[in-house]
Amino acid sequence: MINKLTVVIDKLRIIKLACFITLLSNSFFIYAKDIELPYWILDRYIQYSDAVESDKNNYLKDFRIKLDNDNIYLNNNKYTVIKNKVNDLSLLLSNDILKSSSRKFDLKPFIYPDGSINYLQFKTPVESDFAKLLLPKSRVIYKDNKLLLINKGLTLSFLKPANSEEFKAFSNKFPISNLPINNNIIFDYTVNADVSINTSRRFLNHLRLFNNDNIYTQLNNYITNISGIRLPTFNENINPMIIYGYDENGETIAYFYLFSDTFNFLDKIILKNYYGATREQATNMYPIGFFQPNIDKNYHIERQQRFRNETIEIQHFQITKEGKLQEVPVTSNCYSKFAIKDQNKHSAISLLLTSKQANNYLRFDGGKVEELDSMTLTLNSNEKKFCVNYQQAYSISFGKANSKQFFGNKKVYQQQVENFKKYNIDISNELEYITFENVDKTPLNKFLLNGNQAIYMNNTLFIVGKDYFVAYRQPTKEELVYTQ
């Protein structure tokens, strides 16, 4: 009987222990799940006092925050908070703080129409360093998806990261574009963007433009007014988009993204981002950074990056069936030798141009043909070689002809004689021209006279026709040669 009772007691102990372990593991799971939630995104950082400069290397350096129901995390420290509200801002902020913060920060978005303000009250003492950021009585202002921390020297506001459903609803407002798409088309979209759909930085986490970095790193990764362009679906279940915004200098930053059919992030690459210039002289400087993106109708993607020494790296990408961007080799028959690569900076399969190769392109000098805008043209008369986008070379030959016979149409002849007068060139009797070989299957073909000819005079290439006239001049010595 005693043995049976002992067995029963042991079983009860085992059951209690199992229940305890289950509760404990669930507790750890919930806490771990909370820890995995993304930290909130810095939206505004305003400093009122130089005194906070001394704090850059301590508590602010690695400061991160997030709110989950009744728990708030300051870095990985978890605190329980109580939600409450007041009907007067002065009940939360002292007059000194109100005066300093209102000079540069609009507090109205945190006030409800009835004048009430929500705040979070910490139930337990906060670590002394983090307590410096809190209002008196350990309080933080919040509204919807925003947190506001204010003291005498700083105002910090944070945004709750958006999820995939919110991003889907947001991106449905983007305009739709067909392919191909190039830098000029992207620029037109950014200029004509509907500012009413420009949104906050809440989407930075979903777009992988925010990775829980500290405050000062986030300030250097500044991007605002995020918007985008929807592109045709790839492989029926991949949603490509171009997402763009503006940095602190007002320069456009553009990325190419891939999202799943449920709008979860798959992959991205940067397409455009200027972050400096190569020369001091404004007339001859070149922007440093990513530029000149092109995406053809088959989703072959090209981007270029100019470095401070004016070398240019050209990279090609394609989309895999898994929804990843895969770099593919770039080849060129325009040059026999290229720049020497730094394996820590350059891709092993990209094309790296020397500064002279990169700068030796024909400069636009008047007229308009949109289809040619995305092309970089190079003409080397000594080698009798014409290159498109630094990659495809075509042999050329030079000739002279009677102008009337060359145009073969009196009206076109008279029109072009007048056009060339603007460039101080007289073609009333004779002109000089170039014949291109094997260009019949290129976009250039339909704009050349007789399908393969253009005028080349005074070191300027003229592509002319009945309804168009565009000029490209050779670079000057100052434009061509890199000088530090």
Explain this structure.
The structure is a single chain. The protein is of the alpha+beta class and 484 residues long. It is 20% helix and 33% strand. It has 10 helices and 26 strands. Strand 11 and strand 12 form a beta hairpin.
Question: Helix share of residues?
Answer: 10-25%
Low-confidence stretches: 20-34
Structural class, judged by helices and strands? alpha+beta
C-alpha geometry: elongated
Please, what is the oligomeric state?
Answer: single chain
Number of DSSP helices?
A: 10
Average per-residue pLDDT, rounded, comes to 85
Main pleated-sheet profile: 10 strands, antiparallel
The counted number of beta strands is 26
Terminal residue distance: 97 Å
| Overall structural domain count | 3
List keywords for this structure.
ten-stranded antiparallel sheet; eight-stranded antiparallel sheet; 3 domains; 484 residues; alpha+beta
Indicate the topology:
Layout: H1 2-36, E1 41-47, E2 65-68, E3 71-74, E4 77-86, H2 95-102, E5 117-122, H3 128-131, E6 139-143, E7 146-150, E8 154-159, H4 164-171, E9 181-182, H5 183-191, H6 215-220, E10 224-230, E11 239-246, E12 252-259, E13 265-277, E14 287-295, E15 301-306, E16 312-319, E17 325-328, E18 351-353, H7 355-359, E19 363-367, E20 377-380, E21 385-388, E22 392-402, H8 403-407, H9 410-421, E23 430-436, E24 453-457, E25 460-464, E26 469-473, H10 477-480
